[in-house]
Task: structure prediction
Amino acid sequence: MSEVTTAEFNEEGKYLRKVRSFVLREGRLTKGQAQAMEQQWPIMGLDYSPEPLDLVKVFGREADTVLEIGFGMGASLVEMAKAAPELNFIGIEVHKPGVGACLADAAEAGVTNLRVFHHDAIEVLENSIQSGSLARVQLFFPDPWHKKRHHKRRIVQPEFAQLIRRCLKVGGVFHLATDWENYSEHMLEVMSAAPGYKNQAQEGDFVPRPDHRPLTKFEARGHRLGHGVWDLMFERTE
Result:
């Protein structure tokens, strides 16, 4: 589970820009993580730039691109990239040990279709991603900020939904997952009201976990304890 960004939102869901809108969380890297940063960053790392990425140049091919916001330690992202070599994957994470762990896992797995940012997700989405260039955006288990007074810090807000929509191509999907029922209701409320989206659920509001999202150890343990996980998939329609 990863804290995506330290950005805050006001009551209307408007992103509050600060002089320093986020903090890159350095953390203590293991020897393996530090080595992966040194060896793999030149191959898989994306340095933040306010200029939009040329995805064909970045990946050396034309392919549908999936972007994940806040990938934590990156295990499931690497698993997804390995399972779908026909897709391009981009991960964004502010926690440096997570970036190092992800790079190490990707190198070990021989994954070549993955690139990562060590940066604030909102700045990357606003400036580095071309409009209509993504096939899927993933936000799995973001910080739920479960205390009511902290709900404004939740990343899923009306303005954020529109930022994601701009990055998605028409027909592209925003896939969200959380293990906090209250947050799932908040996500559903925001996304159902967001213009230009259609809920892909066939029955009810939520979708069964799709095959492309790996079951995490944490989630498997939750299942055994009877905890729920809620997946939402909203398609950009216009």
In short: Helices lie at 31-44, 55-59, 75-83, 96-109, 121-128, 158-167, 181-193, 217-224.
